[in-house]
UniProtKB/TrEMBL annotation:
One of its GO terms (molecular function) is DNA binding. Belongs to the class I-like SAM-binding methyltransferase superfamily. C5-methyltransferase family. Keywords: Methyltransferase, Restriction system, S-adenosyl-L-methionine, Transferase. Transmembrane segments: none annotated. SUPFAM superfamilies: S-adenosyl-L-methionine-dependent methyltransferases. Gene3D superfamilies: DNA Methylase, subunit A, domain 2, Vaccinia Virus protein VP39. GO terms for biological process: DNA restriction-modification system; methylation; negative regulation of gene expression via chromosomal CpG island methylation. It is an enzyme of class 2 (transferase). PROSITE patterns: C5_MTASE_1 (PS00094), SAM_MT_C5 (PS51679). This is DNA (cytosine-5-)-methyltransferase.
Amino acid sequence: MYKPTAKGYFSGIGIFEIGLQEGGLDLIQSLDIDKGATKIMNMNPHYFNHKIVTADIKEMRVSRQTASDVVIGTYPCTKYSDIGDIHQVRNGDDLYLHFFRHVAIESPEVFILENVPGMRKFPIVMEAMTKLPQYYVKVFCPVNALNWLPQDRKRVIIIGTKKEFNFRSPKDARITTLKDIMEKDPELDIPPNFYSRFNGKYRDRPIIVDPNDRNSFAPCCVAHYSKDQGTRVVKDSRFPMGIRPFTVREYARLQGVPDDFVFPTNKDGSAIKKNYMYIGNGVPREIGIWAGREIIRYFN
């Protein structure tokens, strides 16, 4: 069986790419502009034993990179999301053009990209993604992490190929419950303002999930959880008011991150809250597994 090579752009901490590798792809390069993200990838050589680049895609020349069968793009979604509309930054950006500069010049057999469903409201962006000459394009939307994980996270996945192919849509295969991802003895440094939201000091009420309800699931993991853990909380009678935030490890599990994935910690061993941001910016590993397996079907 042929194992196609692949390069990732906007890799973050590589959650999506772990899944793509598990699905069968051979990653030869991961790239992200964030030094903290690539540092975490380098802390996990058991998942990333290929070239990891800390750089701005805008400054990367295509001709100086090793060619690959597949090019992967998961560029930032802030300016395409509903929350971006609320904060008046929902205007798209030019990063997609730099991704397609790489696709157009390198001309890989396959390209795959991921973003929020709100991106479809930008006709210029969607035209660039779906009308590139030489490529047959398949758009899957929404692809929900709930197919596999106890997290409601809808995404658009676009796959472009040089030959026409019948890619299969993902099917609901979820067996993991919210209770399954809970830590037995969670250790948390809960700031005093965490409980302010429950005392009416914020306009928005928290989303409370109950691990003992088999039908319960978490809302979409978001990057700003690193700054406000009071937006998504877990019922837990061992904590004040019977609630607590998700731990970093639980948040990672919601994205399908394996437990042997290493995150940096403070000197005392406690969790660094910025890890929530890196996790929230990621693409669920299970979506990568599905996409990787479908791409393997295409090549074989």
